[in-house]
Design brief:
There is one protein chain. This protein is mainly alpha-helical. It has five helices and no strands. It is flat. The two termini are 30 Å apart.
Length: 136
């Protein structure tokens, strides 16, 4: 599959997930007027499609990473590691000052990892010109 076709497919799948998310919000708004069976079926469809989309994003990102030149790949990985550590420290300190009795390190680590991953690698999925490293 060429890069242009893959980018179009990624955008279409993202549009489907965004549409399903909007429908999920509408389902919760009009929850009293919809039967429980329909809500349960929609929720199961939403969560399965969302999880499959997350797995798809991870796989396609890893595939796109192998197409990068070594310098760009090295820069992205270094920024990813630095970003994860900085986000972890920032969120840890924020939790320490705002909620000192309830610090969840796993939650902080997952947010740090996901945020850094998104900032450093998701442009590979949705944009054609990714020869240079991202904007920060």
């Amino acid at each position: 599959m060429t890069n242009d076709k893959l980018i179009k497919l990624n955008r279409i799948l993202l549009g489907i997930i965004v549409s399903l998310t909007i429908l999920l919000i509408l389902v919760f708004i009009f929850e009293s007027k919809i039967s429980n069976e329909v809500i349960q079926q929609f929720l199961s469809i939403y969560f399965v499609s969302f999880l499959l989309f997350l797995v798809y994003i991870l796989i396609v990102t890893l595939i796109q990473l192998k197409n990068l030149n070594k310098e760009d790949l090295k820069d992205r990985i270094i920024k990813f590691i630095k970003g994860s550590v900085c986000y972890f420290i920032f969120l840890g300190l924020l939790s320490l000052f705002l909620k000192p009795d309830n610090i969840d390190l796993f939650h902080i680590a997952t947010i740090s990892f996901g945020g850094s991953f998104g900032f450093n690698f998701l442009d590979l999925l949705f944009f054609r010109n990714t020869s240079k490293s991202n904007w920060y």
